[in-house]
Request: fold
Amino acid sequence: MQLSAQRSFRREAARTHRQQNQYTTASIVARALASTRVSCEPSALAGQQLPNSRRRSTCVVAQAAAAAPATVLQAPGQHLQQVNVVYKFGGSSVRDAERMREVADIICSFPENLPCVVLSAMGKTTNMLLECGELALCTSIDKIPSLKPLETIRDLHLSTCQVLGVEPAVQAEVEQLLSNLQQLLIGISIMQDLTNRARDSLVSFGERMSTRIFASYLRQHGVPAQQFDAPEIGVTTTDDFGNADIIYEQTLPAVRAALRQQPGGPRQVQVVTGFLGKAMLSSAITTLGRGGSDLTATLIGAALELKEVQVWKDVDGVLTSDPRMVPNTLPVTELTYDEATELAFFGAQVLHPLAMQPAIRSESMDVRVKNSYNRQAAGTIISKSRDMRCSLVTSLVVKNNVTLVDIVSSRMLGQYGFLANVFEVFRANQVSVDVVATSEVSLSLSLDPKKSWSDGEVGEELNRLVYELEKIASVRVRSNMAILSIICNVQKTSEILMRTFKVLLQEGINVSMMSQGASKVNISLVVDGSEGQRAVKALHKEFFEGPNSCMPLRNGSSNGAAVAAVAATTLAAR
Reply:
Protein backbone atom coordinates (compact mmCIF):
# COMPACT_ATOMS: atom_id res chain seq x y z
CA MET A 1 0.00 0.00 0.00
CA GLN A 2 2.80 2.39 0.86
CA LEU A 3 4.45 1.79 -2.52
CA SER A 4 1.17 2.33 -4.39
CA ALA A 5 0.48 5.56 -2.50
CA GLN A 6 3.98 6.84 -3.25
CA ARG A 7 3.58 6.18 -6.96
CA SER A 8 0.19 7.92 -7.03
CA PHE A 9 1.64 10.93 -5.23
CA ARG A 10 4.54 11.20 -7.68
CA ARG A 11 2.22 10.89 -10.69
CA GLU A 12 0.01 13.66 -9.29
CA ALA A 13 3.07 15.86 -8.61
CA ALA A 14 4.30 15.39 -12.16
CA ARG A 15 0.82 16.21 -13.57
CA THR A 16 0.62 19.40 -11.48
CA HIS A 17 4.14 20.31 -12.58
CA ARG A 18 3.11 20.05 -16.25
CA GLN A 19 -0.04 22.11 -15.70
CA GLN A 20 1.99 24.87 -14.04
CA ASN A 21 4.31 24.99 -17.04
CA GLN A 22 1.35 25.22 -19.46
CA TYR A 23 -0.29 27.97 -17.40
CA THR A 24 2.95 29.94 -17.16
CA THR A 25 3.61 29.66 -20.90
CA ALA A 26 0.13 31.00 -21.65
CA SER A 27 0.68 33.88 -19.24
CA ILE A 28 4.00 34.74 -20.86
CA VAL A 29 2.43 34.87 -24.32
CA ALA A 30 -0.41 37.07 -23.06
CA ARG A 31 1.96 39.52 -21.36
CA ALA A 32 4.25 39.59 -24.40
CA LEU A 33 1.39 40.44 -26.78
CA ALA A 34 0.12 43.09 -24.38
CA SER A 35 3.47 44.88 -24.24
CA THR A 36 4.83 44.53 -27.78
CA ARG A 37 5.83 47.75 -29.55
CA VAL A 38 7.16 47.64 -33.11
CA SER A 39 6.53 50.09 -35.91
CA CYS A 40 5.69 48.76 -39.37
CA GLU A 41 7.04 51.90 -41.01
CA PRO A 42 10.00 51.29 -43.35
CA SER A 43 12.10 53.76 -41.37
CA ALA A 44 11.77 51.62 -38.25
CA LEU A 45 13.47 48.72 -40.02
CA ALA A 46 15.99 50.71 -42.01
CA GLY A 47 19.43 49.19 -42.28
CA GLN A 48 18.38 45.83 -40.82
CA GLN A 49 17.72 44.01 -44.10
CA LEU A 50 15.23 41.69 -42.39
CA PRO A 51 13.67 38.93 -44.52
CA ASN A 52 10.15 39.74 -45.74
CA SER A 53 8.67 36.96 -43.59
CA ARG A 54 10.20 38.47 -40.45
CA ARG A 55 8.97 41.98 -41.39
CA ARG A 56 5.43 40.64 -41.88
CA SER A 57 5.37 38.68 -38.60
CA THR A 58 6.81 41.63 -36.65
CA CYS A 59 4.19 44.00 -38.08
CA VAL A 60 1.33 41.59 -37.32
CA VAL A 61 2.32 41.43 -33.65
CA ALA A 62 2.72 45.22 -33.52
CA GLN A 63 -0.71 45.81 -35.05
CA ALA A 64 -2.33 43.33 -32.62
CA ALA A 65 -0.92 45.30 -29.69
CA ALA A 66 -1.49 48.77 -31.15
CA ALA A 67 -3.99 49.79 -28.48
CA ALA A 68 -2.03 48.43 -25.47
CA PRO A 69 -0.57 50.94 -22.98
CA ALA A 70 3.19 51.43 -22.78
CA THR A 71 4.95 49.05 -20.40
CA VAL A 72 5.98 50.62 -17.11
CA LEU A 73 8.10 48.54 -14.76
CA GLN A 74 8.43 48.95 -11.02
CA ALA A 75 12.06 49.44 -10.04
CA PRO A 76 12.93 46.71 -7.52
CA GLY A 77 14.76 47.05 -4.22
CA GLN A 78 14.60 50.84 -3.92
CA HIS A 79 14.33 50.54 -0.12
CA LEU A 80 17.68 48.73 0.08
CA GLN A 81 21.14 50.24 0.32
CA GLN A 82 23.06 47.49 -1.48
CA VAL A 83 22.51 44.52 -3.80
CA ASN A 84 21.08 41.54 -1.89
CA VAL A 85 20.82 38.87 -4.62
CA VAL A 86 22.36 37.89 -7.96
CA TYR A 87 20.12 36.71 -10.81
CA LYS A 88 21.72 34.87 -13.70
CA PHE A 89 19.84 34.32 -16.98
CA GLY A 90 21.17 32.04 -19.71
CA GLY A 91 21.02 32.35 -23.47
CA SER A 92 17.61 30.70 -23.92
CA SER A 93 16.12 33.07 -21.33
CA VAL A 94 17.23 36.14 -23.33
CA ARG A 95 17.11 34.68 -26.82
CA ASP A 96 15.01 37.49 -28.32
CA ALA A 97 13.16 40.71 -27.48
CA GLU A 98 10.14 38.95 -26.02
CA ARG A 99 12.26 36.86 -23.67
CA MET A 100 14.17 39.97 -22.59
CA ARG A 101 10.84 41.60 -21.76
CA GLU A 102 9.89 38.57 -19.71
CA VAL A 103 13.22 38.61 -17.85
CA ALA A 104 12.72 42.28 -17.02
CA ASP A 105 9.25 41.44 -15.72
CA ILE A 106 10.70 38.64 -13.57
CA ILE A 107 13.29 40.97 -12.08
CA CYS A 108 10.70 43.63 -11.25
CA SER A 109 8.19 41.13 -9.85
CA PHE A 110 10.36 40.71 -6.74
CA PRO A 111 10.39 44.26 -5.30
CA GLU A 112 11.94 43.01 -2.06
CA ASN A 113 15.23 42.36 -3.88
CA LEU A 114 17.82 44.70 -5.35
CA PRO A 115 19.54 42.42 -7.88
CA CYS A 116 22.77 42.28 -9.78
CA VAL A 117 21.86 40.60 -13.08
CA VAL A 118 24.33 38.40 -14.99
CA LEU A 119 23.43 37.67 -18.61
CA SER A 120 24.66 35.26 -21.24
CA ALA A 121 24.68 35.99 -24.96
CA MET A 122 21.34 35.93 -26.77
CA GLY A 123 20.20 32.46 -27.83
CA LYS A 124 22.78 30.66 -29.95
CA THR A 125 24.97 33.73 -30.48
CA THR A 126 28.08 32.14 -28.95
CA ASN A 127 27.82 29.16 -31.30
CA MET A 128 27.35 31.46 -34.27
CA LEU A 129 30.36 33.56 -33.28
CA LEU A 130 32.53 30.44 -33.16
CA GLU A 131 31.16 29.42 -36.55
CA CYS A 132 32.07 32.86 -37.91
CA GLY A 133 35.65 32.37 -36.74
CA GLU A 134 35.97 29.01 -38.48
CA LEU A 135 34.41 30.31 -41.68
CA ALA A 136 36.70 33.36 -41.69
CA LEU A 137 39.69 31.04 -42.09
CA CYS A 138 38.42 29.96 -45.50
CA THR A 139 36.68 33.14 -46.64
CA SER A 140 38.16 36.04 -48.61
CA ILE A 141 38.14 39.50 -47.00
CA ASP A 142 35.44 40.90 -49.29
CA LYS A 143 33.06 38.05 -48.41
CA ILE A 144 33.38 38.43 -44.61
CA PRO A 145 30.43 40.90 -44.24
CA SER A 146 28.11 38.41 -45.95
CA LEU A 147 28.93 35.40 -43.76
CA LYS A 148 25.55 33.87 -42.96
CA PRO A 149 26.03 33.54 -39.17
CA LEU A 150 27.37 37.12 -39.03
CA GLU A 151 24.27 38.36 -40.85
CA THR A 152 22.07 36.42 -38.41
CA ILE A 153 23.88 37.93 -35.41
CA ARG A 154 23.59 41.42 -36.89
CA ASP A 155 19.86 41.02 -37.66
CA LEU A 156 19.10 39.56 -34.21
CA HIS A 157 20.74 42.34 -32.23
CA LEU A 158 19.68 45.30 -34.38
CA SER A 159 16.08 44.09 -34.60
CA THR A 160 16.05 43.53 -30.82
CA CYS A 161 17.25 47.11 -30.34
CA GLN A 162 14.38 48.31 -32.53
CA VAL A 163 11.72 46.15 -30.90
CA LEU A 164 12.77 47.09 -27.37
CA GLY A 165 13.26 50.77 -28.22
CA VAL A 166 16.71 51.11 -26.69
CA GLU A 167 18.40 54.47 -26.32
CA PRO A 168 20.04 55.84 -29.51
CA ALA A 169 23.44 55.92 -27.80
CA VAL A 170 23.15 52.23 -26.91
CA GLN A 171 22.07 51.31 -30.44
CA ALA A 172 25.17 53.14 -31.66
CA GLU A 173 27.28 51.11 -29.20
CA VAL A 174 25.80 47.87 -30.49
CA GLU A 175 26.45 48.92 -34.10
CA GLN A 176 30.06 49.76 -33.19
CA LEU A 177 30.51 46.36 -31.54
CA LEU A 178 29.16 44.69 -34.68
CA SER A 179 31.63 46.71 -36.74
CA ASN A 180 34.49 45.67 -34.43
CA LEU A 181 33.37 42.05 -34.71
CA GLN A 182 33.50 42.25 -38.49
CA GLN A 183 37.00 43.78 -38.35
CA LEU A 184 38.20 40.98 -36.09
CA LEU A 185 36.89 38.40 -38.57
CA ILE A 186 38.68 40.22 -41.40
CA GLY A 187 41.89 40.03 -39.34
CA ILE A 188 41.40 36.29 -38.85
CA SER A 189 40.90 35.92 -42.60
CA ILE A 190 44.09 37.88 -43.36
CA MET A 191 46.24 36.07 -40.79
CA GLN A 192 44.72 32.67 -41.57
CA ASP A 193 44.97 31.88 -37.87
CA LEU A 194 42.37 31.58 -35.11
CA THR A 195 44.26 31.46 -31.82
CA ASN A 196 42.60 30.73 -28.48
CA ARG A 197 43.15 34.37 -27.55
CA ALA A 198 41.39 35.56 -30.71
CA ARG A 199 38.60 33.05 -30.14
CA ASP A 200 37.97 34.44 -26.63
CA SER A 201 37.83 37.98 -27.99
CA LEU A 202 35.46 36.76 -30.71
CA VAL A 203 32.89 35.12 -28.42
CA SER A 204 32.93 38.04 -25.97
CA PHE A 205 30.82 40.15 -28.35
CA GLY A 206 27.67 38.17 -27.47
CA GLU A 207 27.59 39.10 -23.77
CA ARG A 208 28.81 42.62 -24.41
CA MET A 209 25.85 43.30 -26.72
CA SER A 210 23.12 41.50 -24.77
CA THR A 211 23.90 43.30 -21.50
CA ARG A 212 23.93 46.75 -23.14
CA ILE A 213 20.59 46.12 -24.83
CA PHE A 214 18.96 44.79 -21.66
CA ALA A 215 20.20 47.57 -19.37
CA SER A 216 18.93 50.17 -21.86
CA TYR A 217 15.51 48.49 -22.01
CA LEU A 218 15.25 48.69 -18.21
CA ARG A 219 16.17 52.38 -18.22
CA GLN A 220 13.66 53.13 -20.99
CA HIS A 221 10.94 51.61 -18.81
CA GLY A 222 11.67 53.45 -15.61
CA VAL A 223 14.17 51.11 -13.91
CA PRO A 224 17.57 52.64 -13.02
CA ALA A 225 20.17 50.29 -14.51
CA GLN A 226 23.88 50.27 -15.29
CA GLN A 227 25.81 47.89 -17.55
CA PHE A 228 29.22 46.45 -16.59
CA ASP A 229 31.74 44.38 -18.53
CA ALA A 230 33.12 41.76 -16.14
CA PRO A 231 36.76 42.31 -17.26
CA GLU A 232 36.42 45.98 -16.34
CA ILE A 233 35.13 45.41 -12.80
CA GLY A 234 38.07 43.26 -11.78
CA VAL A 235 37.27 39.66 -12.79
CA THR A 236 40.91 38.58 -13.11
CA THR A 237 41.97 35.22 -14.52
CA THR A 238 44.95 33.23 -15.65
CA ASP A 239 46.08 33.59 -19.27
CA ASP A 240 44.63 30.17 -20.18
CA PHE A 241 42.47 31.36 -23.04
CA GLY A 242 39.32 29.32 -23.62
CA ASN A 243 39.09 27.96 -20.08
CA ALA A 244 40.73 30.45 -17.74
CA ASP A 245 40.85 30.05 -13.95
CA ILE A 246 39.74 32.88 -11.69
CA ILE A 247 42.37 34.44 -9.44
CA TYR A 248 40.19 34.88 -6.37
CA GLU A 249 42.65 36.89 -4.29
CA GLN A 250 42.54 39.74 -6.80
CA THR A 251 39.00 39.32 -8.09
CA LEU A 252 36.88 39.26 -4.94
CA PRO A 253 37.95 42.64 -3.45
CA ALA A 254 37.96 44.34 -6.87
CA VAL A 255 34.42 43.19 -7.74
CA ARG A 256 33.18 44.11 -4.26
CA ALA A 257 34.45 47.67 -4.70
CA ALA A 258 33.23 48.07 -8.29
CA LEU A 259 29.65 46.94 -7.59
CA ARG A 260 29.11 48.87 -4.40
CA GLN A 261 26.05 51.13 -4.73
CA GLN A 262 26.89 54.80 -4.31
CA PRO A 263 25.08 56.76 -1.56
CA GLY A 264 22.25 59.00 -2.68
CA GLY A 265 20.07 58.67 -5.75
CA PRO A 266 18.07 55.66 -6.94
CA ARG A 267 19.31 52.11 -6.41
CA GLN A 268 20.55 50.73 -9.76
CA VAL A 269 20.00 47.27 -11.19
CA GLN A 270 23.51 46.23 -12.20
CA VAL A 271 23.74 44.22 -15.44
CA VAL A 272 27.01 42.31 -15.84
CA THR A 273 28.43 40.23 -18.68
CA GLY A 274 28.76 36.57 -17.78
CA PHE A 275 31.47 34.21 -19.01
CA LEU A 276 34.23 36.83 -19.36
CA GLY A 277 37.36 37.87 -17.48
CA LYS A 278 40.66 39.72 -17.97
CA ALA A 279 43.98 37.87 -18.21
CA MET A 280 46.35 38.82 -15.38
CA LEU A 281 49.50 38.97 -17.55
CA SER A 282 48.28 40.10 -20.97
CA SER A 283 45.14 42.02 -19.90
CA ALA A 284 43.32 40.41 -22.84
CA ILE A 285 39.73 39.15 -22.65
CA THR A 286 39.45 35.56 -21.42
CA THR A 287 36.51 33.18 -21.08
CA LEU A 288 35.66 30.84 -18.22
CA GLY A 289 34.64 27.89 -20.38
CA ARG A 290 31.21 27.12 -21.87
CA GLY A 291 28.48 27.87 -19.36
CA GLY A 292 30.86 30.14 -17.44
CA SER A 293 28.12 32.70 -16.74
CA ASP A 294 27.02 30.49 -13.83
CA LEU A 295 30.50 30.90 -12.37
CA THR A 296 30.35 34.67 -12.91
CA ALA A 297 27.10 34.80 -10.93
CA THR A 298 28.36 32.81 -7.94
CA LEU A 299 31.64 34.74 -8.04
CA ILE A 300 29.79 38.06 -7.72
CA GLY A 301 27.63 36.59 -4.96
CA ALA A 302 30.73 35.58 -3.01
CA ALA A 303 32.40 38.96 -3.61
CA LEU A 304 29.33 40.82 -2.29
CA GLU A 305 28.94 38.29 0.58
CA LEU A 306 25.32 37.57 -0.35
CA LYS A 307 23.06 34.91 1.13
CA GLU A 308 21.69 33.69 -2.21
CA VAL A 309 22.42 33.56 -5.93
CA GLN A 310 19.61 32.57 -8.30
CA VAL A 311 20.48 30.84 -11.57
CA TRP A 312 17.46 31.04 -13.89
CA LYS A 313 17.32 28.28 -16.49
CA ASP A 314 14.69 26.78 -18.80
CA VAL A 315 13.89 23.83 -16.49
CA ASP A 316 12.34 23.60 -13.01
CA GLY A 317 15.67 23.32 -11.22
CA VAL A 318 17.86 20.22 -11.11
CA LEU A 319 16.03 17.07 -12.19
CA THR A 320 16.37 13.43 -11.17
CA SER A 321 17.85 12.66 -14.60
CA ASP A 322 18.12 14.00 -18.14
CA PRO A 323 14.53 14.43 -19.43
CA ARG A 324 15.76 13.72 -22.96
CA MET A 325 16.60 10.18 -21.82
CA VAL A 326 14.10 9.57 -19.03
CA PRO A 327 10.47 10.64 -19.55
CA ASN A 328 9.37 10.72 -15.90
CA THR A 329 11.99 12.95 -14.30
CA LEU A 330 11.11 14.96 -11.19
CA PRO A 331 12.54 18.19 -9.76
CA VAL A 332 15.10 17.83 -6.96
CA THR A 333 14.28 20.26 -4.15
CA GLU A 334 17.63 20.25 -2.32
CA LEU A 335 21.29 19.55 -3.09
CA THR A 336 24.59 20.05 -1.30
CA TYR A 337 27.55 21.84 -2.89
CA ASP A 338 29.27 18.46 -3.34
CA GLU A 339 26.25 16.87 -5.01
CA ALA A 340 25.83 19.77 -7.44
CA THR A 341 29.54 19.74 -8.28
CA GLU A 342 29.53 16.00 -9.02
CA LEU A 343 26.41 16.34 -11.18
CA ALA A 344 27.99 19.11 -13.22
CA PHE A 345 31.32 17.34 -13.69
CA PHE A 346 29.65 14.14 -14.88
CA GLY A 347 27.50 15.71 -17.53
CA ALA A 348 24.41 17.40 -16.06
CA GLN A 349 23.76 20.56 -18.07
CA VAL A 350 22.12 22.63 -15.34
CA LEU A 351 25.23 24.28 -13.84
CA HIS A 352 28.82 25.01 -14.85
CA PRO A 353 31.15 22.45 -13.20
CA LEU A 354 33.09 25.14 -11.32
CA ALA A 355 30.10 27.27 -10.33
CA MET A 356 30.10 25.86 -6.80
CA GLN A 357 33.67 26.96 -6.04
CA PRO A 358 32.79 30.50 -4.89
CA ALA A 359 29.90 29.14 -2.81
CA ILE A 360 32.20 26.60 -1.16
CA ARG A 361 34.67 29.37 -0.37
CA SER A 362 31.94 31.47 1.24
CA GLU A 363 30.42 28.48 3.16
CA SER A 364 27.19 30.43 3.72
CA MET A 365 25.86 31.32 0.25
CA ASP A 366 23.00 29.32 -1.23
CA VAL A 367 22.54 28.82 -4.98
CA ARG A 368 18.96 28.44 -6.16
CA VAL A 369 18.17 27.07 -9.64
CA LYS A 370 14.86 28.41 -11.01
CA ASN A 371 12.89 28.31 -14.25
CA SER A 372 12.48 31.59 -16.17
CA TYR A 373 9.54 30.00 -18.04
CA ASN A 374 7.84 29.03 -14.74
CA ARG A 375 8.79 31.60 -12.15
CA GLN A 376 6.44 30.20 -9.48
CA ALA A 377 8.22 26.83 -9.39
CA ALA A 378 10.27 26.45 -6.19
CA GLY A 379 13.36 25.24 -8.07
CA THR A 380 16.37 23.61 -6.42
CA ILE A 381 18.25 25.08 -3.46
CA ILE A 382 21.95 24.19 -3.25
CA SER A 383 23.58 24.71 0.14
CA LYS A 384 26.50 23.57 2.25
CA SER A 385 24.54 20.73 3.89
CA ARG A 386 21.08 19.22 4.11
CA ASP A 387 19.19 16.56 6.04
CA MET A 388 20.23 13.24 4.48
CA ARG A 389 18.27 10.92 6.75
CA CYS A 390 15.58 10.19 4.17
CA SER A 391 17.82 10.59 1.13
CA LEU A 392 18.86 7.57 -0.91
CA VAL A 393 19.48 8.49 -4.57
CA THR A 394 19.29 12.14 -5.57
CA SER A 395 19.93 12.07 -9.32
CA LEU A 396 21.28 9.90 -12.14
CA VAL A 397 23.47 11.21 -14.94
CA VAL A 398 25.11 9.54 -17.94
CA LYS A 399 28.27 10.72 -19.67
CA ASN A 400 28.68 9.14 -23.12
CA ASN A 401 31.61 8.75 -25.54
CA VAL A 402 34.04 7.86 -22.77
CA THR A 403 37.25 5.86 -23.27
CA LEU A 404 38.19 3.23 -20.66
CA VAL A 405 41.90 2.46 -20.19
CA ASP A 406 43.04 -0.64 -18.25
CA ILE A 407 46.69 -0.50 -17.14
CA VAL A 408 48.56 -3.42 -15.53
CA SER A 409 52.11 -3.11 -14.25
CA SER A 410 54.71 -5.29 -15.99
CA ARG A 411 56.70 -5.43 -12.75
CA MET A 412 56.31 -7.56 -9.63
CA LEU A 413 54.17 -6.81 -6.57
CA GLY A 414 55.53 -4.23 -4.14
CA GLN A 415 57.15 -2.09 -6.83
CA TYR A 416 56.76 1.48 -5.63
CA GLY A 417 56.20 4.45 -7.94
CA PHE A 418 53.92 2.67 -10.42
CA LEU A 419 50.93 4.97 -9.98
CA ALA A 420 53.16 8.04 -9.96
CA ASN A 421 54.70 6.99 -13.29
CA VAL A 422 51.28 6.37 -14.83
CA PHE A 423 49.89 9.75 -13.86
CA GLU A 424 53.07 11.48 -14.96
CA VAL A 425 52.33 10.19 -18.49
CA PHE A 426 48.85 11.71 -18.32
CA ARG A 427 50.25 14.99 -16.98
CA ALA A 428 52.88 15.21 -19.71
CA ASN A 429 50.19 14.65 -22.35
CA GLN A 430 47.79 17.10 -20.65
CA VAL A 431 45.02 14.53 -20.39
CA SER A 432 42.30 14.84 -17.75
CA VAL A 433 41.01 11.68 -16.06
CA ASP A 434 37.36 11.28 -14.98
CA VAL A 435 37.06 8.09 -12.89
CA VAL A 436 39.77 5.88 -11.37
CA ALA A 437 39.77 2.42 -9.77
CA THR A 438 43.13 1.08 -8.59
CA SER A 439 45.06 -1.71 -6.89
CA GLU A 440 48.77 -2.13 -6.18
CA VAL A 441 49.75 -3.22 -9.68
CA SER A 442 46.82 -2.20 -11.89
CA LEU A 443 44.33 0.52 -12.44
CA SER A 444 41.41 1.32 -14.67
CA LEU A 445 40.49 4.86 -15.57
CA SER A 446 38.13 6.68 -17.86
CA LEU A 447 38.79 9.77 -19.92
CA ASP A 448 36.88 11.96 -22.30
CA PRO A 449 39.06 12.35 -25.43
CA LYS A 450 37.14 15.40 -26.67
CA LYS A 451 37.95 17.20 -23.43
CA SER A 452 41.66 17.03 -24.27
CA TRP A 453 41.78 16.90 -28.06
CA SER A 454 39.82 18.10 -31.06
CA ASP A 455 37.92 15.57 -33.20
CA GLY A 456 40.72 15.31 -35.74
CA GLU A 457 43.36 14.70 -33.09
CA VAL A 458 41.70 11.98 -30.98
CA GLY A 459 43.05 8.92 -32.78
CA GLU A 460 46.61 10.16 -33.10
CA GLU A 461 46.86 11.55 -29.56
CA LEU A 462 45.29 8.49 -27.97
CA ASN A 463 47.79 6.25 -29.80
CA ARG A 464 50.61 8.46 -28.52
CA LEU A 465 49.30 8.16 -24.95
CA VAL A 466 49.10 4.37 -25.21
CA TYR A 467 52.63 4.23 -26.65
CA GLU A 468 53.98 6.11 -23.61
CA LEU A 469 52.02 3.95 -21.15
CA GLU A 470 53.21 0.71 -22.76
CA LYS A 471 56.76 1.59 -21.72
CA ILE A 472 55.80 0.84 -18.10
CA ALA A 473 52.71 -1.41 -18.33
CA SER A 474 50.41 -3.47 -20.51
CA VAL A 475 47.49 -1.38 -21.76
CA ARG A 476 43.98 -2.14 -23.00
CA VAL A 477 41.77 0.60 -24.46
CA ARG A 478 37.99 0.43 -24.91
CA SER A 479 36.15 3.26 -26.66
CA ASN A 480 32.47 4.24 -26.76
CA MET A 481 31.85 3.54 -23.09
CA ALA A 482 29.51 5.44 -20.75
CA ILE A 483 29.85 6.60 -17.15
CA LEU A 484 26.66 6.20 -15.14
CA SER A 485 26.96 8.40 -12.04
CA ILE A 486 24.64 7.77 -9.12
CA ILE A 487 24.49 10.89 -6.95
CA CYS A 488 23.45 9.41 -3.65
CA ASN A 489 23.78 9.10 0.10
CA VAL A 490 26.77 6.77 0.37
CA GLN A 491 25.96 6.17 4.03
CA LYS A 492 23.44 3.78 2.51
CA THR A 493 25.79 2.25 -0.04
CA SER A 494 24.74 -1.33 0.71
CA GLU A 495 21.10 -0.76 -0.19
CA ILE A 496 22.01 1.35 -3.21
CA LEU A 497 24.42 -1.24 -4.61
CA MET A 498 22.07 -4.12 -3.88
CA ARG A 499 19.25 -2.53 -5.82
CA THR A 500 21.54 -1.21 -8.58
CA PHE A 501 23.15 -4.55 -9.36
CA LYS A 502 19.81 -6.33 -9.14
CA VAL A 503 18.42 -3.99 -11.83
CA LEU A 504 21.51 -4.28 -14.04
CA LEU A 505 21.43 -8.08 -13.72
CA GLN A 506 17.79 -8.12 -14.78
CA GLU A 507 18.63 -5.90 -17.75
CA GLY A 508 21.65 -7.99 -18.73
CA ILE A 509 24.04 -5.04 -18.38
CA ASN A 510 27.61 -5.70 -17.23
CA VAL A 511 29.66 -3.18 -15.28
CA SER A 512 33.22 -2.80 -16.56
CA MET A 513 34.39 -0.59 -13.71
CA MET A 514 33.08 0.89 -10.45
CA SER A 515 34.41 3.80 -8.41
CA GLN A 516 33.26 5.83 -5.41
CA GLY A 517 34.38 9.46 -5.34
CA ALA A 518 36.22 11.00 -2.40
CA SER A 519 33.33 13.47 -2.04
CA LYS A 520 31.22 10.56 -0.71
CA VAL A 521 28.18 11.55 -2.77
CA ASN A 522 28.83 9.70 -6.02
CA ILE A 523 29.11 6.09 -7.16
CA SER A 524 30.25 5.80 -10.79
CA LEU A 525 29.73 2.75 -12.98
CA VAL A 526 31.27 2.35 -16.42
CA VAL A 527 29.15 0.39 -18.90
CA ASP A 528 29.11 -0.14 -22.65
CA GLY A 529 28.02 3.03 -24.40
CA SER A 530 25.14 1.29 -26.15
CA GLU A 531 23.66 0.35 -22.78
CA GLY A 532 23.99 3.67 -20.93
CA GLN A 533 20.53 5.04 -21.68
CA ARG A 534 18.81 1.72 -20.95
CA ALA A 535 20.68 1.48 -17.65
CA VAL A 536 19.71 4.96 -16.48
CA LYS A 537 16.05 4.47 -17.42
CA ALA A 538 15.89 1.19 -15.51
CA LEU A 539 17.63 2.65 -12.44
CA HIS A 540 15.43 5.74 -12.51
CA LYS A 541 12.36 3.51 -12.42
CA GLU A 542 13.84 1.56 -9.49
CA PHE A 543 14.84 4.52 -7.32
CA PHE A 544 12.24 7.15 -8.19
CA GLU A 545 9.17 5.00 -8.81
CA GLY A 546 9.91 2.52 -6.02
CA PRO A 547 10.38 2.76 -2.22
CA ASN A 548 12.62 5.44 -0.79
CA SER A 549 15.44 5.06 1.72
CA CYS A 550 13.12 5.56 4.71
CA MET A 551 11.20 2.37 3.95
CA PRO A 552 12.35 -1.15 4.88
CA LEU A 553 13.73 -3.42 2.21
CA ARG A 554 10.97 -5.35 0.52
CA ASN A 555 12.33 -8.82 1.21
CA GLY A 556 13.13 -8.04 4.84
CA SER A 557 16.73 -9.25 4.53
CA SER A 558 19.76 -7.38 5.80
CA ASN A 559 21.55 -5.03 3.38
CA GLY A 560 24.86 -6.81 3.69
CA ALA A 561 23.44 -10.25 2.91
CA ALA A 562 21.51 -8.91 -0.05
CA VAL A 563 24.58 -7.23 -1.54
CA ALA A 564 26.62 -10.39 -1.18
CA ALA A 565 23.90 -12.45 -2.83
CA VAL A 566 23.49 -10.09 -5.79
CA ALA A 567 27.25 -9.73 -6.28
CA ALA A 568 27.69 -13.51 -6.31
CA THR A 569 24.87 -13.92 -8.83
CA THR A 570 26.32 -11.19 -11.05
CA LEU A 571 29.79 -12.75 -11.09
CA ALA A 572 28.33 -16.19 -11.83
CA ALA A 573 26.39 -14.76 -14.76
CA ARG A 574 29.59 -13.42 -16.28
